Amino acid sequence: MNSLLKTLRIVGFLEGISYILLLGVAVPIKYILHDPQYVKLLGMPHGLLFVGYVVLAILVGVELKWSIKTIAFVLLASIVPFGTFIADKKYFKTAV
């Protein structure tokens, strides 16, 4: 398996986990308990993972000659909760 693809799978997993924690834990704490500390704590790592995922997805898509439709799906997966896990199962595990 290509090293960029391995890296994309790891970053995608971490990005998905950080997104779920941000939406499922940090944001409710912010608005219910009025404590923005967890959003601040998880926001920056999630943002960095998101940017890394997008860059890696484009690089892997070009390298593996994915169609524009596939690249678009993989990129859109990063903004849908659990989307990166679906993209991993559908595209990353089956690639090369």
TrEMBL record:
Listed InterPro entries: DUF3817_TM
Signal peptide: none
Pfam families associated with the record: DUF3817
Keyword tags: Cell membrane, Membrane, Transmembrane, Transmembrane helix
Compartmental location: Cell membrane
Annotated membrane topology: Multi-pass membrane protein
Top-rank lineage group of the source organism: Bacteria
NCBIfam families: integ_memb_HG (TIGR03954)
CC per GO annotation: plasma membrane
Coiled-coil residues: none
Domain DUF3817: start-end pairs: 5-91
Main location: membrane
Species for this entry: Formosa algae
Designated name of the protein: Integral membrane protein
Keyword Ribonucleoprotein among record annotations: no
TM helices/strands, residue ranges: 12-29, 41-60, 66-87
